[in-house]
């Protein structure tokens, strides 16, 4: 049984943009906080983000946070400054190095073996299979020839992706052998355009797996003392013309009570099978005709705009939930209640273009009751009138409504208005009319 320890020294190593809020929450609750920032951050180094990092009591910048030796060295320095009670990262590409660093120093964290398994989708699928849990057919291929042979064996369509990627980068649905070869070429060459810190994580071969049909959801679950604490199940809207692109989340997911129970039970069993023992985790799964099947187990708290969507949908703070869980405090809040639906939407460029020097957003005034938050290009690290490539997120909104259908309609309308303001074609959601 985890003993309640009260105030802690928490070391955060690297982060996605959303995860920086955890620093502020920990400080607000009276914890001592350290932060290790990457020399190449995944989040834009805006003034607002830098203010969040500067709330830390101890900080080191320009660290190679995907390198286990570098992380171990800086954690040892931090631990010497003040003993660390828990080490965590909210950025999945740093998760392996953080796990190895904490293990080398004997620091408390999510099970390093569990993190290393979760960060390899092939190892995750093997762990689920060994535990008797549903998992897609899969194999890791070294080249396009092996990938084609695997796809032929599994049956089309299949999904091609890196075993240790993030945010669906270099992920493709292949419907025939030509698609497999094209997907393999893109997946193998894609890391060349990435920062050198991340390239090795994307160069672990080609994961070829069964294509799963059904709605995509994620279970946000905390684990402690072998018990799961489900915070919510979120649904996903995917792009109409490219299902691997997630337009945005909505909370709650549109599931029957039975489907929700199945997803919760499966998520808890999956965490045990993979070895995710303490922390808050983001498990994505497809609700298939045979039940939920895991897509990936992220050994981190949900990211992107999801923490904000969660806060508005439930009235709770996911970072507060994390702090209670790792401190040993009682987890007795019970399941959240929902009054309507809260939906986030990312505006993806559907093709190459250029941002306008000024953006007319007066159209937002037409949504006084629905709009919760709007993030213009500048808040996402873009500098008008810079050019943008297909797939770039050029804006975001969070809206509320009576149900998901209402928020989806609002999101589709906003996408059309944003498209007019930008002069750039945007990707449409799968349910946009």
Reported for the largest beta sheet, the result is: 8 strands, antiparallel
Number of DSSP strands?
Answer: 18
Q: Provide the β-strand percentage band.
A: 15-25%
CATH architecture annotation of the largest domain: 2-Layer Sandwich
Question: What's the CATH H-level homologous superfamily of the largest domain?
Answer: ATP-grasp fold, B domain
Query: Roughly how much helix do the residues carry, as a percent range?
Result: 25-40%
- Tally of separate helices: 13
Shape: globular
What's the arrangement of strands in the largest beta sheet?
Answer: 13-12-9-10-11-14-18-16
Query: Residue ranges: pLDDT <50 for 5 or more in a row?
Result: none
Oligomerization status of the protein chains: single chain
Q: What's the N-to-C terminus distance?
A: 51 Å
Overall tally of structural domains: 4
Mean pLDDT: 96
The CATH class of the largest domain is Alpha Beta
Structural class: alpha+beta
For this structure, the CATH topology of the largest domain is: D-amino Acid Aminotransferase, Chain A, domain 1
Gyration radius (Cα, Å) is 21 Å
């Amino acid at each position: 049984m985890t003993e309640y320890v009260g105030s802690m020294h928490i070391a955060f190593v690297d982060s996605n943009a959303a995860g920086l809020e955890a620093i502020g929450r920990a400080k607000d609750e009276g914890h001592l906080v350290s932060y290790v920032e990457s020399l190449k951050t995944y989040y834009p180094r805006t003034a607002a983000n830098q203010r969040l990092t500067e709330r830390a009591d101890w900080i080191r910048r320009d660290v190679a946070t995907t390198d286990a030796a570098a992380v171990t060295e800086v954690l040892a320095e931090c631990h010497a400054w003040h003993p660390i009670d828990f080490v965590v990262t909210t950025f999945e590409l740093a998760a392996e190095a953080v796990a190895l660093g904490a293990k080398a120093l004997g620091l408390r964290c999510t099970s390093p073996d569990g993190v290393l398994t979760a960060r390899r989708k092939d190892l995750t699928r093997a762990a689920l299979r060994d535990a008797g849990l549903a998992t897609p057919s899969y194999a890791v291929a070294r080249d396009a020839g092996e990938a084609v042979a695997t796809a032929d064996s599994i049956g089309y369509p299949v999904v091609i992706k890196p075993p240790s990627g993030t945010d669906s980068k270099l992920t493709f649905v292949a419907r025939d052998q030509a698609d497999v070869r094209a997907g393999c070429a893109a997946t193998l060459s894609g890391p060349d355009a990435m920062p050198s810190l991340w390239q090795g994580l994307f160069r672990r071969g080609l994961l070829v797996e069964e294509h799963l049909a059904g709605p995509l959801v994620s279970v946000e679950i905390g684990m402690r003392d072998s018990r799961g604490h489900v915070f919510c199940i979120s649904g996903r809207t995917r792009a109409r013309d490219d299902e691997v692109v997630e337009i945005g989340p909505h909370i709650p997911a549109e599931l029957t009570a039975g489907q929700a129970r199945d997803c919760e039970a499966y998520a808890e069993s999956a965490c045990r099978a993979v070895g995710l023992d303490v922390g808050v985790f983001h498990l994505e799964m497809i609700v298939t005709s045979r039940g939920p099947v895991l897509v990936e187990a992220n050994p981190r708290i949900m990211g992107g705009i999801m923490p904000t969507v969660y806060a508005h949908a439930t009235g709770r703070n996911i970072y507060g939930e994390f702090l209670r869980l790792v401190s040993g405090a009682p987890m007795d809040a019970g399941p959240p209640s929902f009054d309507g639906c809260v939906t986030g939407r990312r505006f993806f460029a559907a093709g190459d273009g250029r941002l306008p020097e000024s953006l007319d957003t007066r159209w937002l005034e037409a949504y006084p009751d629905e709009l919760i938050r709007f993030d213009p290009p500048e808040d996402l690290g873009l500098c008008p009138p810079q050019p943008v490539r297909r797939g770039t997120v050029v804006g975001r909104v969070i809206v509320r409504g009576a149900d998901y259908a209402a928020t989806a309609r609002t999101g589709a309308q906003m996408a059309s208005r944003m498209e007019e303001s930008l002069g750039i074609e945007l990707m449409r959601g799968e349910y946009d009319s």
